[in-house]
C-alpha cells in the first residue's frame, strides 16, 4: 500500500456526487484508510483512494483532512479496484458504491472496536489458581475424551470444582 506523511489526498465520501474530494493532510495516511473529513457543515467518514495531488488546485482553498480512523486496517487494493470497476460499470458515484460495499459499522465517522471472539478465556479465579500436584486429572480427562468414556454428568463428581470443570469418567 502507498503511504504519505503530508500533502494532498483524494478521498471518496458517501455522497451522490461523482468524483473524489481533495484534502490536505499533515498526518500519515495510506490508500484504503478510513478517515474523518469535514464535508459541508458535518463530519463524514471517507476512504483515501489516491495520494496524488492535483496540481491545478490551490492548496489554500483545500480543507484539512480530519483524523485517521482506527480499529481496522486499510481496505485492500483489490477491494478498491473491484469497487471502482462496479462504479464505472453501473455509472454510479465511487463514494456511494464504496460505502454500499462496506459493512454498516465502517460507514460512520468513528473508530471501530472489534469484538473479542475468543471462545475460551480464563476467569479471574482461574488466572489466580494453581494446580495442586501433577495435572493427572487433566491427563485422565483427555484420555477419557479420546476413548469416549466421559459422561457429561458433573453432579456425580466429588467437589464443586470437579463438577464444573471435569465431569465424571465412566468406570
Write a compact overview of the structure shown.
This protein is α+β, with helices and mostly antiparallel strands. It contains five helices and eight strands. The strands form three sheets. A four-stranded antiparallel β-sheet has the order 3-2-6-5, with helices on one face. It has a two-stranded antiparallel sheet with strand order 1-4. Strands 7-8 form a two-stranded antiparallel ribbon.
List the helices and strands and how they pair.
Elements: E1 3-4, E2 7-13, E3 21-25, E4 29-30, E5 34-39, E6 42-50, H1 77-89, H2 94-101, H3 124-128, H4 136-147, E7 150-151, H5 160-165, E8 168-169
Antiparallel strand pairs: 1-4, 2-3, 2-6, 5-6, 7-8
Notes on the structure:
Helix 1 (77-89) packs across helix 2. The model is unreliable at 150-171 (pLDDT under 50). This protein is globular. It has 171 residues and is α+β, with helices and mostly antiparallel strands. The chain has two domains: 3-106, 3-Layer(aba) Sandwich (GIY-YIG endonuclease), CATH 3.40.1440.60; 124-169, no CATH class. The strands form three sheets. The protein has a four-stranded antiparallel beta sheet with strand order 3-2-6-5, with helices on one face. Strands 1-4 form a two-stranded antiparallel ribbon. Strands 7-8 form a two-stranded antiparallel sheet. It has five helices and eight strands. The protein has helices spanning 77-89, 94-101, 124-128, 136-147, 160-165, and strands at residues 3-4, 7-13, 21-25, 29-30, 34-39, 42-50, 150-151, 168-169.
Amino acid at each position: 500500500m502507498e503511504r504519505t506523511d503530508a500533502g494532498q489526498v483524494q478521498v471518496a465520501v458517501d455522497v451522490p456526487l461523482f468524483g473524489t474530494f481533495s484534502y490536505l493532510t499533515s498526518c500519515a495516511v495510506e490508500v484504503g484508510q478510513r478517515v474523518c473529513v469535514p464535508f459541508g457543515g458535518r463530519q463524514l467518514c471517507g476512504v483515501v483512494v489516491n495520494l496524488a495531488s492535483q496540481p491545478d488546485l490551490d492548496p489554500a482553498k483545500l480543507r484539512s483532512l480530519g483524523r485517521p480512523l482506527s480499529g481496522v486496517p486499510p481496505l485492500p487494493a483489490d477491494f478498491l479496484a473491484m469497487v471502482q470497476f462496479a462504479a464505472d460499470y453501473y455509472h454510479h458515484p465511487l463514494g456511494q458504491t464504496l460505502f454500499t460495499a462496506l459493512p454498516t459499522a465502517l460507514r460512520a465517522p468513528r473508530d471501530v472496536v472489534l469484538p473479542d471472539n475468543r471462545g475460551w478465556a480464563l476467569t479471574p479465579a482461574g488466572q489466580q489458581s494453581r494446580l495442586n500436584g501433577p495435572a493427572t486429572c487433566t491427563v485422565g480427562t483427555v484420555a477419557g475424551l479420546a476413548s469416549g468414556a466421559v459422561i457429561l454428568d458433573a453432579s456425580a463428581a466429588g467437589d464443586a470444582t470437579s463438577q464444573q470443570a471435569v465431569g465424571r469418567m465412566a468406570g
